[in-house]
Design goal:
Order of helices and strands: HHHHHHHHHHH
Number of helices: 11
Radius of gyration: 42 Å
Shape: rod-shaped
Distance between the termini: 87 Å
Helix content: 55-70%
Structural class: mainly alpha
């Protein structure tokens, strides 16, 4: 059976009251005697320590106080524990009872599950975009109108055309022709002057 945060805080207050042999309602009184102020400080300390995600306003509201009281009590309790006025063994014993209470621990687990679920949903929303390979930029030449890449490709695609032989006749290297065919070098005027006569020799007509 699940309980609310306020009900869990009431149970924590009851465990503290039981340890000091007083009633929870007594802790809520305006009395400033140590028999009641110490349990009040300890309640705020433990309620904040047990991670049920309760606000300071809610913690202090259970004992009919405001959040400023909770802040003061938490700080005061740490000092009292350090000085030994509130025995650490008492704190540990009460905390052990709280953590043995399934209704309270279920609330703690519920908060953790909720956080995990939110993180999982966020991970599902975050998708890595697939890497998009950028196409190599096409190198344009001012001599494209005289001899286009497409015409050059069409010429060497003809049956019986030997690229190495044409390069030899034109006086250019196979490597340079390869760079032009892969569009890593532009078609230059010098290349056209050398290659065009060879292409025409083999009957290729430039559009």
């Amino acid at each position: 059976m699940y309980i609310t945060k306020e009900q869990a805080l009431e149970k924590i207050l009851a465990y503290v009251a039981e340890s000091y042999n007083v009633e929870p309602e007594q802790i809520k009184l305006e009395s400033r005697i140590s028999e009641l102020t110490y349990p009040r400080h300890l309640y705020c300390y433990l309620a904040n320590k047990v991670k049920i995600n309760a606000s300071l306003g809610l913690i202090s509201g259970v004992i009919d106080r405001n959040h400023a009281t909770a802040i003061h009590s938490i700080s005061k309790c740490k000092t009292l524990i350090k000085s030994g006025k509130i025995q650490k063994s008492r704190v540990d014993k009460i905390l052990s009872k709280i953590m043995s209470d399934n209704q309270i621990t279920n609330l703690i687990v519920g908060q953790k599950i909720s956080t995990v679920q939110v993180k999982r949903k966020m991970k599902k929303k975050i998708r890595k975009l697939p890497a998009v390979s950028k196409p190599a930029p096409k190198i344009k030449s001012k001599y494209d109108s005289l001899l286009k890449f497409e015409e050059l490709e069409c010429f060497f695609a003809q049956a019986g055309i030997n690229a190495s032989g044409c390069c030899k006749e034109a006086g250019i290297t196979n490597t340079y022709l390869g760079l032009i065919m892969n569009k890593k070098r532009p078609i230059t005027k010098g290349f056209i002057e050398k290659m065009l006569p060879v292409m025409q020799k083999y009957g290729f007509k430039i559009s």
